[in-house]
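Supplementary Methods S3. Input chains for the assembly prediction are listed below.
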Amino acid sequence: MGEKYTNQIIQGDCLNLLRQLPDESVDVVFADPPFNLKKKYRSHNDNLELQDYLDWCEKWIKECVRVIKPTGSIFLHNIPRWLTYYAATLNKIADFRHWISWDAPTAPMGKTLQPNYYGILFYAKDAQQNKFYEIRSPHKRCRKCGYLLKDYGGKKALLHPFGSLVTDVWTDIHRIRHNKYRDEHPCQLPIHLLERIILMSTDENDIVLDPFSGTGTTAIAAKRLGRQFIGLELDSEYAEASLRKLAQEQSNAKIDKYWVSFFLEEVVTLREKDWKDISQYYIIPTPIQQIDFAKSKLQKQSQICYCPQNNKTAKSASLPY
Ligand SMILES: C[S@@+](CC[C@H](N)C(=O)[O-])C[C@H]1O[C@@H](n2cnc3c(N)ncnc32)[C@H](O)[C@@H]1O
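Predicted structure tokens for the full assembly:
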């Protein structure tokens, strides 16, 4: 790919820009397009006729798949209704891996089941060659008493000291909550959501492309994790805000030499294959059965390479329903 496009936020229409990228030149695409739900973006009209919206989506999805390497993946974030159309397009040109359900409750809508999740479609360019790493997240606990939420009965000694393997239902990452930290953008995603996706699908220095970059969440996650990024964004102010934020970031979300995702100074995602080495930096309850009420804790001194201030910038974007 060279440096022409990498580690940049490029302002412009993603379809035009995608057409300039070479075939099979990026490792992963994450796309969080406008949902056509009359959201107030600065530059984009989020109220297209149904067929116009679907035709447009089909065009950029095909371009995204074209630019992904044979080992690469595409992740499409949207409401389930639009994902059914995206899946129909993707099924012809890529290999289904997962429909991830990201638990994100919303305000009551009336006369319908209450929408309670966003979907993230995960397709491989080629399932046989697809790069994928198993990942773990901390065991779920009661916020007040600290006990494990699930009753593992007599099996507690068998629990993993850090946490469980991540499934296709994500309930542990919340939409951004505090307005004081939020960008002037209606749909900003949490950085650690993107870090999870990047950790499971890429290696250091791989290229992550986001054709709807917004205020740069994917690019920031990629930079923190030592990956390269390409952000495409129609709106110049969103693009400029991303560059300002990126200038504050370092590639330092690590324990020792292992990339991990932090949120509020705790590791929220790590790779299964790294745990054996990372575990030396944790204080693990002994006997392990005590994990019922005591979690494994990261030793303070091992956090030296992490700069947490921007992970605390999570705040609650309004939901696009
Ligand atoms: C749902 S938001 C993405 C938010 C992003 N994930 C974040 O966390 O900041 C969609 C973004 O796509 C941008 N957009 C809309 N049409 C576009 C186009 N044709 N090309 C590039 N970006 C576009 C909008 O300006 C908006 O910032």
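Residues 13-14, 32-34, 41, 43-44, 185, 187-189, 212, 214-215, 217, 232-235, 238 surround S-adenosylmethionine (CB under 6 Å). The chain has a mean pLDDT of 90.
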